[in-house]
Every structure is written in C-alpha cells, then in structure tokens.
Structures
1.
Amino acid sequence: MSMLSTASVVLLIGWMTLMLRACVAEYRYYRAVAIHEPEVWVKLGAPNHWLAPFLFLVTPGRKRLLDSVDNPLVLALKRRYTLAGRIFLAYVVVLLLSSTAFFEWA
C-alpha cells in the first residue's frame, strides 16, 4: 500500500468520524427539543423521525422558536451540535484547500 493511499484512508476515516459525530449531536439535539420542549416541537410541526432535520432549517420563525428555548440541557446540546457542525465543516474546507494545493503543486 502506497503512502498516498494510506493517507487517503486516514483522511477518509477522519471525515467519517467527524460526520458521524455531527450526526449524533444533531439527533440528540432534536430529541432533546422533542422531549424537554414539547410546545416548541409542536410549533415546529411535530415532525416524524425522518422529517426532523428539515424542520430545523433556519428560517426567521423557526430561529425565534428555537431561540426561545430555556432548558439548560437543550441549550448545552445546541452548543455541542453547533460546535460539531463547525468542526466538520472546517475539516472539509481544510481538506479541500490542502488537496487542491497538493494537486496543483505536485
């Protein structure tokens, strides 16, 4: 196995790990809103399991609803969800920039 393919596997495993971490954080945040803030969940449309991610898309009305949450557990999970998403996006951006630079100068 060449060094390039080993590096590709390591980068792919890193990507999958960060993606899984972001997905788990997002799911835990959804469940916390549904369990601890049922009135907000109902105002969002009380989605079933498969439609939940689409109801959390940012719109002014939904943002106001989610910002009105005051449960400390839900707020902590929101911070964790936001952080996990930002770390994943930063990893993807750094990976794209570094691979572009690598293939341009290689």
Note: The mean pLDDT is 86.
2.
Amino acid sequence: MQTNVYFPLPLPVHIAFGVFGALFFIFMFARKKSFHYLLLSTSVLSTFLIYLCHTKTTRMILGIEELILYILILVFMFLDSRKKKKEETSEKEADEDENSNS
C-alpha cells in the first residue's frame, strides 16, 4: 500500500475507517436522536475531500470547514447534555412529587 502525502493512512484503509465511522454515527443518530452525531458523520465523510484539494487555498478552506464542524459538534454536545440533565431533573422532581402525594 502506498502512503498518501495529505493523509497519514493509505487510501483503502482511510475509506474503510471513514465509511465505518460514518455508518456508526448515523446509527447513533437514529438511536439517540442527537444532532451532533450527524455532524460527526459529516466530519468523518468530509475527510475524503482532502483527495480533491490540490491547492493550498482549497486545503485551507477544508481545514476551516473541519474546524467549524468540530466547534458545532462541541456546541451541540453541550446543549444536548444540558437538555438531558434538565429532563432528568424534572423527571426526578415528578417522581418525588408523586411519592410524597401517595
């Protein structure tokens, strides 16, 4: 296998890991309904764009796109964790109210 100048893995290995990762994150989105899993899938698939970027400008644009995706992933993960924590708290309070009324 020949190594790539732009990516540290050989192309067939990169494709295999990329497809597996994207399918995994799509499955996780279907299971948990958290938007950041779709963003993770998109970021994994966008690593294939490195093979189309031949100029410094296009590689810079790709890098900025990846950076924006990672920032969005972190934001949506944070928002999702706050939402889940709020739901757990309200659920716990509802259970306590139900138990005290009995």
Note: The mean pLDDT is 88.
3.
Amino acid sequence: MKDISKKKSEMTRNKIKTLLNLIEKCNNIFLEDIKNNENEFKIILREKKPYSKRKYSRRIIISNSYKIKTYSISTYEIHKNKNDDEKYLEIYNAKVEGNYDIKTIAKDLKEIIHGKDEIKIRPNFPF
C-alpha cells in the first residue's frame, strides 16, 4: 500500500486507506496511482489487460474533494494509435454531491470494477 501524505487529516488518510484496501483485493487486475493536493485526492486505476469480453482496458478515476462534499467516478476505455499514444474514451461519469461516507464511494467503486460502467440505458428510459 502506498504511503499517504502526513499533511492531510487522519480522516482523509483513513478514507484513502479504505479505498486502497478494496483495490488491493483487485491488485492482479489494476495498477494504481494516487494524486493528492490541497483540494482533492484522486485514485487512478488502470486495468493491466482487458477483462473478459471487453476489447479495451479501462482507466478508472475516483476524485474526492476536501472542501466541497463531492466525489466523482469516471471510467474510460484506453485506445492506442499506431504510435502507441493513448487516447481515452469516456464510458461512464458520475458525480455525487451532499452527505455521503466512504462506504458509499467504496460501494460505487466495487460496482464499477464489476462492470456497472458498461450497462447501456436507452436515452428515453423508462418510456
């Protein structure tokens, strides 16, 4: 598990540790990167290879704001061109505002890891 900056509060370090514990269970599937600044922390996950029926690997970004009570989870397909440059195609994006706890973020992340981002809904659903 990566070392977490000492300048952030104990609560923030505990949030990140909780998410990293969930991610560690998927360690053979994802590479992780943590970005931490005065406004937010981000955990960036990258699938090592496409899972099962998918053609492309995914990149998952979890952002949690320190100042405003919000977090977001975005997923992208990783496409490569002939020069091996990466391009990201967004396939899912959810932003949650208001009163939530780390269990909510962990639940959402777990659902994304298991494929929630691949569910297609008709634009005029449920009509």
Note: The mean pLDDT is 78.
